[in-house]
Amino acid sequence: MANHSATQKDVRQAAKRRERNKYYGKTTRNAIRDLKKAGTEDAAKKLPEVISMIDKLAKKGIIHKNKAANMKSKLTKKKVAGK
């Protein structure tokens, strides 16, 4: 465990950020899963919301921007093709 008060604070802050990032990532993964299971009309409504969630993860640095682009591309192709 850290000995300096500033380092102890940093450990506490990192734990908070880690929990928050895990929550955002899990919520987005669940939204992607629901989008993949959704029907065509329902998916058309949900797609912009899920893309927005993915963009927010990339903006906050939770996922890499290229990973976000790949995820959005795959989802868009899948839902546009109606598969």
Fold blueprint:
Elements: H1 5-37, H2 40-60, H3 65-80
Helix pairs in contact: 1-2, 2-3
Commentary on this structure:
- By secondary structure, the chain is an all-alpha fold.
- The chain has a domain of 44 residues.
- It is built from three helices and no strands.
- The protein is elongated, with a radius of gyration of 17 Å.
Summary?
Helices cover about 85% and strands about 0% of the residues. By secondary structure, the chain is mostly helical. Helix 1 (about 5-35) runs antiparallel to helix 2 (about 40-60) and helix 2 (about 40-60) runs antiparallel to helix 3.
CA-to-CA gap between the ends? 51 Å
| N-to-C order of helices and strands | HHH
Oligomer: single chain
Question: In which range does the helix fraction lie?
Answer: over 70%
The description of the largest β-sheet is: none
Structural class: mainly alpha
Round the mean pLDDT to the nearest integer and report it: 92
Beta-strand residue fraction? under 5%
Low-confidence stretches: none
Rg over C-alpha atoms, rounded to the nearest angstrom: 17 Å
Number of H/I helices: 3
Highlighted features:
83 residues, single chain, 3 helices, mainly alpha, 0% strand
